[in-house]
Amino acid sequence: MNNPTTDAASATARRLLIVGPPGAGKGTQAVRIAEELSIPAISTGDIFRANVSGETELGVLAKSYMDKGEYVPDSVTNDMVRSRLAEGDAQRGFLLDGYPRTLDQVEALDEMLSGLDTTLDAVLLLVVETDEVVGRLVERGKEQGRSDDTEETIRRRLDVYAEQTAPLIDVYEKRGLVRRVDGMASIDEVTAALREALAGR
Ligand code: AMP
């Protein structure tokens, strides 16, 4: 049935993921694209880091995994995302950065979205070279003092990504959702390419 209100809302609705290995520039690009689309950029890593700084119970738990380069358990992460997606600002769209990262999280997100009677619109994939990424992350560790940006933890995070997160790309590829963008270009060029990918060019 045609419902002008719903149609207008869904025309502007954007439910997006940004995926890529640690250091691909997901966070930087997510903030830019989300702002252009007037939707929240939701970074699970940022939410965990805010909890670590605030010394909450969740933060203490998350830190024990983050410092080793391991993933925080799915049940904890899924509950956190479920409550974030229930907030008012996420009702007309969102750009999830760093979630889902495991097949279990994909399933949990599918359930959350079907509960909201909606689906994903696209999965933006930043393609980068691993050696370059290690260099970027070592630099970020020095600049931002991130405790998980030491060389040993970076290598572990890249391994965990390859084992647990890279397989998700196939899942979303089969659904026809993946839009690949070269993440090795300059920040502005990557933003422009993401914009074009979203416009379907
Ligand atoms: P990020 O800032 O996205 O690189 O995330 C930093 C760290 O937070 C990761 O190395 C994990 O320890 C944790 N983390 C972030 N997102 C997730 C997730 N979706 N599932 C499990 N752990 C996560």
Structure summary, number of beta strands: 5
Largest sheet: 5 strands, parallel
Q: N-to-C terminal Cα separation, in Å?
A: 30 Å
Briefly note the structural class of the backbone. Answer: alpha/beta
Shape: globular
CATH topology: Rossmann fold
H/I helix tally: 9
Q: What's the topology here?
A:
Elements (H helix, E strand, L loop, with lengths): L3 H9 L1 E6 L6 H12 L3 E3 H10 L3 H10 L7 H12 L7 E5 L5 H13 L6 E6 L2 H15 L6 H24 L3 E5 L4 H12 L3
Parallel strand pairs: 1-3, 1-4, 2-3, 4-5
Helix pairs in contact: 2-9, 3-4, 5-6, 7-8
The protein binds adenosine monophosphate.
Adenosine monophosphate binds next to helix 3 and helix 4.
